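Intended use. Records such as the Two-component system response regulator QseB entry shown here are meant for training and evaluating sequence-to-structure methods. They are not intended to support clinical decisions.
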Amino acid sequence: MSETAGRLRLLLIEDDPALGPLIEEVLSETYDVDRRVDGRDGLIAGLDHDYDVVVLDRRLPSLDGIAVVRALRRGRVAVPVLMLTALGTVRDRVEGLDGGADDYLVKPFEFDELLARLRALTRSFADSGVRLPVGSWTFTPADRILTSPYGGSVVLTDRESGLLAVLAAEPDRTFSREHLLRVVFADSELPGTVDTYVHYLRRKTERDIVLTVRNRGYRLGAL
């Protein structure tokens, strides 16, 4: 939280000379806005300062938006990120979300929708400090971190975290590949994608963290 009137601090990374100042003006009615017009400068700000939410353009000078988000996540910055872009295909959205963004808004957009999405993002992160037990591991969905019982932690990708969050929320339930594909992954992908990400989770942690239920799908393991 910002110390100024208890308002949330927002990092805006947008280089458009017309749209950038307009977004900053609108958001400043609700947030303490720090605007940067260069991807590298925005990344440095995001790593060096504490923000409550980040809004950034995808196409930026020196470093594009996806590279900025990936670098923030590698730096263990778990702040919610909303990406603004004129690129609106399914593949573009998937790339942005896989890069570590939490939401994706296509230009042109209405400011009411931008503000509503920011409210939802910050509310979700404020409420998501919960830690879920995964066997002897501890999973914190908000920052995508699995803490090992032997010390140390594993940082998951957005998709790995999304998959584990669904399984951990109902540990006694077996989920079909089709269900997991629908709620975690892009509609255009094949059910084999689920198998691939289960493999990633096992490789990063331990074999029985996700159990295969023959002819039915997957459930949380390591119980």
